[in-house]
Write a structure and sequence with these properties.
The chain is mostly helical. It contains 13 helices and 3 strands, in the order H-H-H-H-H-H-H-E-E-E-H-H-H-H-H-H. Helix 2 crosses helix 4 and helix 6 packs across helix 10. The longest helix is centred in the first third of the chain and has 23 residues.
Length: 305
């Protein structure tokens, strides 16, 4: 975990702790209400980490709406969704009053607008087309090819990708070591990813690094650790180049990785372990995606459907 992400997590925990104290000392809320509100905000923070790769303070209104849709997709009652909305609106109003943020992302959102929404998934052919876009003819092409192959090979979050150090990579054994939120996991790599990473590490990275003491696995063209914003631009560039109409975000390959594994027989527990989900319920969203896709195929293909 890089220092920036570690600071975000500590800040999140402090925000939630201060919010709990505010509910108890100033709002004189009951213990049940405090527990419910804090649980709602904490679970939202976990969702943002797993599916949006942002912290609570960086959430947008669309992310709040998507989480409500995600809750509904998991069978949460209308009452639970409505309470979450109240919890998160109150939380952000507290942060505004404290001068920590200026906009409440939950403002203006009504629970009645909740619609079931699933992560955008690329087909296997679309993934293949997307991964073919970086041309291995120069340093940038080799680096970008290695990054995209690694992302789809492992399903790691973008924050984890840019936090990787050179010694987190074991090419001889064919795996990476990924540490996030105080937990470490080992994720295998397929052959194509190993080759792409080998080419990058041996021939390209030494040309790019600005300082021989640089530990980052992936660096920008200035030789410094890749940023989240820099990687976002790379994703968008290759989406446009591939001519794929679906909105590809840095998390799209993570979602596609999980669904494709599930479609090909991987069990949920193994996928949960590789994705780094603390709770199996976070991984179960992908079973809903697969079921929805099967239903769509049935409706289009069955002669009597």
């Amino acid at each position: 975990m890089n220092a920036e992400r570690g600071e975000e997590i500590l800040l999140e925990r402090d925000d939630i702790k201060r919010y709990g104290a505010y509910l108890a000392e100033e709002k004189h809320a009951s213990q049940n209400t405090i527990s419910s509100y804090l649980r709602d905000v904490t679970q939202f923070a976990e969702y943002l980490q797993n599916y949006e790769d942002v912290s609570l303070r960086d959430a947008t209104g669309e992310m709040v709406q998507s989480y409500m849709s995600w809750m509904q997709g998991r069978g949460k009652s209308a009452a639970s969704v409505t309470r979450f909305l109240a919890s998160v609106k109150s939380f952000y109003q507290f942060l505004i009053a404290q001068g920590d943020i200026t906009v409440n992302p939950a403002k203006g959102i009504a629970s009645a607008k909740v619609e079931r929404k699933y992560p955008e998934i690329l087909t296997s052919k679309e993934v293949e087309l997307f991964l073919e876009q970086p041309q291995c003819v120069d340093a940038k092409g080799f680096r970008d090819h290695a990054m995209l192959e690694l992302l789809y090979a492992t399903g790691i979050r973008v924050s984890e990708l840019i936090s990787l150090d050179l010694d987190d990579l074991n090419l001889a054994a064919g795996f990476i070591r990924c540490a996030s939120r105080g937990k470490e996991r080992i994720i295998p790599l397929y052959h194509t990813a190993v080759k792409a990473l080998t080419d990058y590490v041996k021939n390209i990275r030494p040309q790019l690094i600005a300082d021989s003491g640089e530990t980052a696995l992936f660096v920008n063209m200035n030789g410094e650790r890749m940023s989240r914003q820099g990687f976002w631009k790379i994703i968008k560039h290759y989406q446009e180049k591939a001519g794929i109409e679906k909105d590809i975000t840095p998390h799209t390959l993570r979602h596609s990785f999980a669904v494709h594994l599930l479609e090909n027989g991987a069990d949920l527990r193994s996928i949960q372990e590789m994705l780094g989900h603390a709770d199996i319920s976070s991984t179960q969203i992908y079973t809903h995606v697969v079921k929805r896709q099967l239903k769509d195929v049935y409706q289009k293909a069955h002669p009597r459907a």
